[in-house]
Q: What sequence folds into this?
């Protein structure tokens, strides 16, 4: 029985932006398969190297077990499309639903068609989550391809693997590279090559498993969120496990699969917190481009580019090829590429800088206010500074006790801030003239907002809507400051001073009695949160007595103690 | 028209529409799933709000949620094909859930049998619910499926869902925290005001207390020039919801569904104590 293969090139993985103008080739697979006549051929006449229904069933069952075994690990890798940590559970449950659909069927006469279609149906109904749905489409694609067949030849198996990849692509509204789709395609690509080299079924399955693992290791380069989290794609890893399980089993090997078997170049296993496992020494450039030509030979391209750098990924077809490669000499790589055809979409990134940039971007995202102005708060106390950052300050300047001289650094902070509009938020009456002087010297549009106390500043910031514009923000903050009352307790030689809105009102023997006077005067009704900011020198016993006083006065409030680190008061009490 | 055009309206369980409204308007709802450990419940079908809340607050492991399978949509579409001529299916934001994905596949599978228009609400909860109600209104006035879908898509910007959570933990664990992730790890506790915009979660006010958060919701409503309808949502704080409703009700032209409850799937992601508002503006379209 001969199998004519017209051709079977790699499925082309293309994102729209890599296309030349005018055409979109989602996937391009051509294959031919023998007719349906083999469905009735007696078992003895079928070559040994075929996939029977029973063999397919056993393989899929084994794959399901392996996915379950690795469920927790897959969950921990899950960051795309949403980081909800359930890829492992979803793929596992989808496979289990598929297995349940088979029930106890185990007859040696089972056809491949029956197994595949039953599995596909079970997965379709029981698909869980995004990865489950894609997996169910992979199974459906496989099933569609083997419809009517009782056994599969090597070529038919390869055709089915290709169709599984194609169908998976069609399943996703917006196909994204760096996911299960890429991994499945990688598997199909290598399976195709193996078939062309005359491989039998175990070779093909082995190639598919290797292709999947290879593509998987590149997924962080294709999907920024994976790179940021320093993980490979969870769904892709699941596919890689299943294919590895099936490949091993076809050689009679059912030993447990280790993570290292799947990732030839592992990025971070998410349980590894020791840092970068980047395998590049020294600098290197991540170089990407597309080559347009006639009659491009992928194997030759792979060989040549493979010699020119590391981690070369070459995918495409005879007219459009996408290349991704790490090299110290991007100029040489591009020159080489130009000998094959026309270049497009060239991008070259300094890989060491990339990591730094990602970190800086994350910092900036955290601190940047949404509206195009910066708020620089002036405080005395590390913890106080952090608290203000929590509620919206974009930067904090520590004035230190009596640090008038250091105010020029405030000027530098203003200049290096992102926006042209700056609010300088003073949190006490210290150094105000100097602050104003620094502000007016700046070429930027700087407004000083004077909060009479830290609590006033805290309240003003936390009341700010993230969408206030600059002018509205300043006005709003000033109004809030006027309406806020603050309590500070200062322990000294003569007892404990109670300061309200910056002025000493009374002196008491203990912190808690000073506080009680303060609470009466300020008369806040029913605060939800009481926050105690402790300064340098606040003793443990004192802290506890202040805590108890607040708890007794406001039994329904939640009370937080924050180490403020301020030097000009022992306790700052915020009531909200 | 020679023959009445019967249109089925389908949505998902996160629409939080009261069941009597759904029955009266003939709006079908496909349930998402809530998972407590290995046990799976269909949202609003297998588990009541009370039972869900009890488990949410007492079980050591948080529940998770998942989209309906393609098969469930397919089965419903085929069933509807017997008595309807076309289906308009409006669902929760594709950026927050794979529900749209499942529906698309099902629609493709039944394409020969019945026409299904799948619309991404880019929203959830009662904002989605109000869109489903709108779809029924449009079909009652004679619009066909394609035209209804087109109108809904053009109007997605008029629906606003705003809420605050007692803590960001639930959004964080469920993976839908979106841009509010920048507020995690803040030194001081926050109950930020959050809205769903263009399908994703975005914080817009860093409130610290529940009282201020409720005031913030009120202020949000005041900012609209003209409101067609609105609703207040809560999980287990009906008094707060009623108080808030009394303050904002006068701003709307009409109120069909005054108070709704965040169903189990939404509650899994926002947590107990959350309160929200849904507004449909008048007179805007994208």
A:
């Amino acid at each position: 029985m001969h199998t004519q293969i017209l051709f079977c090139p790699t499925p082309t993985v293309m994102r729209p932006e890599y296309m030349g103008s005018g055409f979109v080739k989602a996937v391009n697979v051509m294959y031919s398969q023998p007719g349906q006549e083999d469905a009735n051929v007696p078992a003895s006449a079928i070559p040994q190297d075929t996939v029977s229904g029973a063999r397919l069933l056993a393989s899929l069952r084994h794959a399901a077990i392996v996915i379950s075994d690795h469920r927790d690990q897959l969950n921990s890798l899950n960051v795309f499309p949403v980081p909800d940590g359930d890829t492992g559970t979803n793929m596992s449950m989808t496979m289990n639903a598929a297995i349940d659909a088979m029930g106890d069927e185990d007859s040696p006469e089972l056809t491949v068609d029956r197994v595949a279609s039953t599995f596909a149906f079970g997965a379709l109904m029981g698909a869980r989550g995004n990865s489950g749905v894609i997996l169910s489409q992979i199974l459906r694609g496989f099933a569609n391809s083997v419809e009517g067949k009782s056994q599969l030849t090597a070529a038919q198996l390869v055709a089915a693997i290709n169709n599984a990849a194609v169908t998976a692509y069609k399943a996703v509204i917006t196909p994204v590279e760096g996911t299960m789709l890429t991994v499945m395609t990688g598997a199909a690509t290598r399976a195709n090559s193996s078939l062309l080299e005359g491989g039998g079924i175990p070779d093909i399955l082995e190639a598919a498993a290797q292709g999947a693992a290879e593509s998987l290791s590149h997924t962080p380069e294709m999907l920024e969120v994976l790179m940021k989290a320093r993980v490979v794609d969870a769904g892709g890893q699941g596919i890689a496990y299943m294919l590895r399980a099936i490949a091993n089993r076809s050689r009679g090997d059912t030993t447990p699969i280790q993570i290292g078997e799947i990732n030839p170049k592992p990025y971070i296993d998410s349980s590894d917190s020791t840092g970068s496992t980047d395998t590049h020494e020294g600098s290197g450039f991540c170089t990407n481009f597309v080559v347009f030509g006639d009659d491009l030979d992928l194997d030759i391209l792979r060989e040549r580019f493979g010699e020119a750098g590391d981690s070369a990924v070459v995918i495409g077809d005879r007219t459009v090829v996408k290349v991704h490669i790490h090299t110290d000499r991007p100029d040489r790589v591009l020159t080489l590429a130009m000998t094959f055809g026309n270049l497009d979409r060239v991008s070259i990134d300094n890989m060491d800088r990339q990591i730094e940039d990602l970190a800086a971007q994350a910092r900036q995202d955290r601190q940047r206010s949404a509206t195009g102005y910066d708020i620089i708060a002036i405080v005395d106390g590390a913890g106080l500074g952090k608290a203000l950052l929590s509620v919206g300050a974009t930067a904090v300047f520590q004035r230190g006790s009596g640090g008038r001289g250091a105010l020029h650094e405030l000027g530098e902070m203003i200049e290096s801030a992102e926006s042209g509009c700056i609010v300088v938020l003073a949190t006490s009456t210290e150094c105000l003239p100097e602050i104003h002087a620094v502000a007016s010297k700046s070429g930027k549009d700087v407004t000083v907002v004077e909060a009479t106390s830290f609590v006033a500043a805290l309240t003003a910031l936390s009341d700010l809507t993230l969408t206030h514009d600059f002018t509205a923000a300043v006005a709003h903050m000033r109004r809030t400051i006027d309406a806020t009352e603050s309590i500070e307790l200062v322990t000294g030689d003569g007892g404990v001073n109670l300061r309200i809105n910056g002025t000493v009102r009374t002196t008491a023997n203990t912190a808690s009695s000073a506080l009680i006077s303060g609470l009466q005067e300020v008369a806040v009704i029913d605060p939800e949160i009481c926050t105690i900011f402790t300064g340098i020198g606040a003793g443990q016993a004192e802290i506890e007595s202040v805590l108890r006083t607040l708890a007794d006065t406001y039994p329904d409030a939640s009370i937080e103690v924050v180490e403020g680190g301020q030097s000009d008061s022992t306790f700052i009490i915020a009531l909200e | 028209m020679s023959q009445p055009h019967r249109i089925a309206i389908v949505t998902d369980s996160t629409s939080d529409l009261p069941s009597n409204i759904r029955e009266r308007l003939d709006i079908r709802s496909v349930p998402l799933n809530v998972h407590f450990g290995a046990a799976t419940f269909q949202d609003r079908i297998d588990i009541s709000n009370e039972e869900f809340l009890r488990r949410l607050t007492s079980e050591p492991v948080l529940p998770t949620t998942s989209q309906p399978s393609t098969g469930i949509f397919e089965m419903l579409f085929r069933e509807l094909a017997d008595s309807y001529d076309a289906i308009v299916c409006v669902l929760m934001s594709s950026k927050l859930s794979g529900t749209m994905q499942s529906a698309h596949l099902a629609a493709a599978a039944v394409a020969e049998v019945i026409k299904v228009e799948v619309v991404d609400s880019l929203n959830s909860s009662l904002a989605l619910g109000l869109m489903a109600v709108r779809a029924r209104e449009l079909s009652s006035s004679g619009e066909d499926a394609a035209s209804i879908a087109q109108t809904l898509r053009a109007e997605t910007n008029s629906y606003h869902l705003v809420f605050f959570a007692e803590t960001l933990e639930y959004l964080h664990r469920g993976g839908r925290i979106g841009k509010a992730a920048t507020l995690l790890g803040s030194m001081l506790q926050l109950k930020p005001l959050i809205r769903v915009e263009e399908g994703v979660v975005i914080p817009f006010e860093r409130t610290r207390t529940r009282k201020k958060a409720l005031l913030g919701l009120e202020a949000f409503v005041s900012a609209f020039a003209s409101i067609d309808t609105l609703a207040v949502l809560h999980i287990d704080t009906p008094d707060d919801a009623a108080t808030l409703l009394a303050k904002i009700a006068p701003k709307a032209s009409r109120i069909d569904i005054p108070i709704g409850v965040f169903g189990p799937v939404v509650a899994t992601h926002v947590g107990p104590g959350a309160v929200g508002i849904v507004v449909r503006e008048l007179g805007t379209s994208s």
Residues 12 and 316 of chain A are 5 Å apart (CA to CA). The longest strand of chain A covers residues 342-350.
